[in-house]
Specification:
Layout: H1 6-18, H2 28-40, H3 44-58, H4 63-80, H5 83-99, H6 103-120, H7 123-138, H8 143-159, H9 164-179, H10 183-200, H11 203-219, H12 223-240, H13 243-259, H14 263-279, H15 286-299, H16 303-319, H17 326-339, H18 343-359, H19 362-410, H20 414-480, H21 482-497, H22 507-536, E1 543-547, H23 548-565, E2 569-572, E3 578-582, H24 583-599, E4 606-614, E5 617-624, H25 631-635, H26 657-668, E6 673-678, E7 682-690
Parallel strand pairs: 2-4
Antiparallel strand pairs: 1-3, 4-5, 5-7, 6-7
Helix pairs in contact: 1-7, 1-9, 2-3, 3-4, 3-5, 4-5, 5-6, 5-7, 6-7, 7-8, 7-9, 8-9, 8-19, 9-10, 9-11, 10-11, 11-12, 11-13, 12-13, 13-14, 13-15, 14-15, 15-16, 15-17, 16-17, 17-18, 18-22, 19-20, 21-22, 22-26, 23-24, 24-26
């Protein structure tokens, strides 16, 4: 999760524009001096400037006083038609409302400020206003509007040849990719923001972008690199001297220590951030603290405490109408309910997470980002054409100069010819160097454009896969998950209303039917929850050395009774090799493949659980002599976008979801999965696992 740092960055940005530093209690003498100056100053515009200065000095220590002085500046500015003072006062009122969590009036005041700065063509102030407006809209549901404001600020930055606002634009674009879980693209834009901050020497932004880069690296499972980024942020903290900055850095370390499982250290940082937030007025990081406390208790498997804190984070987010992280909170709340085996509540939270995610219209965000990337590529192409035109012009100028030089040579003395020739050669060398520099610039931009096109193609494929995953998920819920419940409702209704059925010969058949329906529904729901965890990146990977033979024996015993109903024998390989993998995942893979083998085996069939060493890997095989598969079926077997469903030899039902999960788990463990099969000749499912070195 990314902590919101943008409004703090923008505070610093606007402070640069109006020339007022962020201050705390040490500024009391300055405040007293300014209050005294108001009583002696006669120039109305200077009085407005003093009110603005006082408002800025109070914004972090007394929001009410800050708004009071800003409103005085606004009223006086309107009387004397002082547009700069009027727009600046509106901006400061908006900022204080944002600080106190009242962001709807913050938007209203900011829009009025934009009208004034547009009229006065104050590009510097417009950049700050559009950036803040983008951040404020990002709290709510209209994420595309927020993104458009950021892009507008970027365009003004480029037109006015200003660089400082670009950092905030890039970091916000990064946050949209982060919301879409495109962490590679997000990391790229945070790096661009950091490059701008390094060029401009903006220490505050550098610190905050170190934290944002650390969050992305944690999502990419690059924990050591994330810690390096957090330590860099910590080094910059003394130069910021900002309570909110210290809170942000502390929250970053909490996220790291929870991720690596050092919970005792994480709790120490949590206690520290609670103390810091209690001194911060208003307590704007309360939702973030609830979230991290929830994650801490979730990691400790204290699920009731985790549920309590996630509910607080959700309720406070809804109360403040800030929806940008609501989906994450519901997902983690679902995991906590699942930990208590409250699967119905877990499923409901997954549904709410999906609704919260869709509420922000991710498809429209993706389209807006695609348009932005296309515009950026178009700008690069236009720059390339402009450079080519400049090269052509430079070449023509060079040819014209050569002609004049030759004409001069024909009418001058030998000495002058020598001097002119030397001068010409110097100029030519200079032109060639310029041409070389321009060529290198064009070539770099061409490579950047090609790289962007490749990444756009990758993103398109990922989007197609995400849509296919969503369609599959809905299909399973709409059809397969509903069927077991229909059976349970039907049979239980019959037993409830037809008393004769309880004493009939069919009673055992009905009870068995209810048992099989309940078991099927539970297994499918369990698979759905496991699958959702793989898609959201919340599943834990805990490799350890263990004997594969142990997994074979567990699953043979588990399925022995089911196999007996078909007269199927299950044999186990005698090889007792040790692998290094996640035991629960491997157990799931073998269980699923063995269930499928039984399902598609004929009566009196034979199933073998085999293992053989291959270099540093162990090849595990589940082999049956059942009905087999066609080449077309095999081709679509592990593709989420293809619906592969067929009944077993005893009319057993299936969704194909289990094999998709098997593929996911095998990849997580560093192996591959494949199948050999012919119709009527049975099937052999193979997957590889790393051998343990011990």
């Amino acid at each position: 999760m990314k902590i919101r740092t943008n409004h703090i960055i923008l505070s610093v940005l606007f402070a640069c524009i109006i020339g007022v530093p962020t201050v705390f209690g040490k500024e009391t003498p300055k405040i007293d001096s300014l209050k005294a100056a108001v009583n002696t100053e006669t120039d109305a515009e200077k009085i407005v400037d003093i009110y603005i200065h006082l408002s800025s000095l109070y914004e972090n220590i007394n929001p009410d006083s800050s708004i009071s002085y800003a409103e005085k500046a606004l009223e006086l500015s309107q009387k004397i038609n002082y547009k700069y003072g009027e727009g600046t006062a509106l901006f400061l009122i908006s900022y204080v409302y944002d600080q106190t969590g009242d962001w709807l009036p913050a938007i209203s005041n900011l829009e009025q400020a934009i009208t004034i700065f547009t009229e006065t063509k104050d590009s510097l102030s417009l950049i700050a206003c559009y950036l803040n407006l983008g951040v404020l809209h990002s709290y709510g549901k209209d994420q595309v509007q927020a993104l458009n404001y950021m892009i507008k600020a970027k365009n003004i930055c480029e037109e006015a040849n200003k660089t400082y606002g670009l950092s905030v634009v890039y970091s916000n674009i990064a946050s949209y990719y982060e919301y879409l879980r495109e962490y590679r693209s997000s990391f790229r834009y945070y790096e661009k923001a950091f490059e701008v901050d390094t060029l401009t020497g903006n220490i505050d932004n550098q610190c905050f972008n170190h934290i944002a880069l650390a969050y992305n690296l944690l999502k990419l499972k690059q924990n050591e690199e994330a810690l390096l980024q957090l330590n860099e942020a910590l080094k910059l903290l003394p130069q910021i001297n900002n309570n909110q900055g210290e809170i942000l850095v502390t929250l970053g370390f909490i996220a790291y220590y929870i991720e690596v499982g050092e919970l005792h250290t994480a709790k120490e940082y949590i206690d520290r951030v609670i103390e810091l937030n209690s001194k911060n007025r208003p307590n704007k990081f309360t939702v973030d603290i609830y979230n991290f406390l929830g994650r801490y208790y979730l990691k400790k498997q204290e699920f009731k405490n985790a549920i309590r804190l996630y509910n607080k984070a959700i309720n406070l987010s809804i109360e403040q109408e800030k929806y940008d992280y609501l989906s994450d909170y519901y997902n983690e709340l679902s995991e906590a309910h699942a930990g208590l085996q409250q699967y119905q509540q877990a499923y409901e939270m997954q549904t709410k997470a999906r609704e919260a995610y869709e509420m922000l219209k991710p498809d429209e965000i993706i389209q807006a980002l695609s348009n932005f990337e296309a515009d950026e590529a178009s700008k690069a192409e236009r720059n390339k054409i402009l450079l080519e035109q400049q090269l052509t012009s430079a070449k023509n100028e060079s040819e014209e100069f050569k002609f004049r030089a030759k004409a001069g040579l024909a009418i001058t003395a030998l000495v002058i010819v020598m001097v002119a020739l030397i001068f010409f050669l110097i100029l030519r060398k200079k032109h060639l160097n310029e041409l070389k520099v321009n060529y290198n610039t064009i070539n770099r931009q061409k490579l950047l454009l090609e790289d962007n096109l490749v990444k756009l193609a990758e993103d398109e494929q990922n989007l197609k896969k995400l849509n296919a995953t969503k369609d599959k998920f809905f299909s399973i819920i709409a059809h397969d998950l509903k069927n077991p419940f229909n059976v349970l409702i039907g049979i239980s209704d019959l037993l409830r209303n037809e008393k004769e059925a309880r004493n009939s010969d069919d009673f055992d058949v009905l009870i068995n039917g209810m048992y099989h329906a309940a078991t099927s529904g539970y297994e499918l729901l369990e698979n759905l929850l496991e699958w959702s965890r793989t898609q959201t990146g919340t599943i834990k990977f805990e490799p350890q050395p263990f004997f594969i033979h142990k997994v074979f024996e567990i699953n043979k015993d588990l399925n022995l009774e089911v196999a007996k109903t078909k007269g199927i024998t299950i044999s186990i390989s005698e090889i007792k090799a040790m692998v290094y993998a996640d035991f629960d995942m491997v157990n799931f893979i073998v269980r699923n493949l063995l269930n499928n083998a039984i399902k598609f085996s004929n009566n009196n069939g034979k199933i073998e659980l085999l293992a053989k060493r291959d270099d540093k890997m162990l090849i595990v095989t589940v082999k049956d002599n059942g009905i087999g598969m066609s080449p077309e079926l095999i081709e679509n077997l592990f593709k989420i976008e293809k619906s592969v469903q067929r009944e077993g030899t005893a009319n057993e039902k299936g969704t194909g979801l289990g094999l998709i999960l098997c593929q996911e788990f095998v990849k997580i463990n560093g192996g591959n999965i494949w199948v050999n099969s012919e119709i009527g000749q049975g099937s052999s499912f193979h997957f590889s696992l790393p051998l343990s070195l011990s």
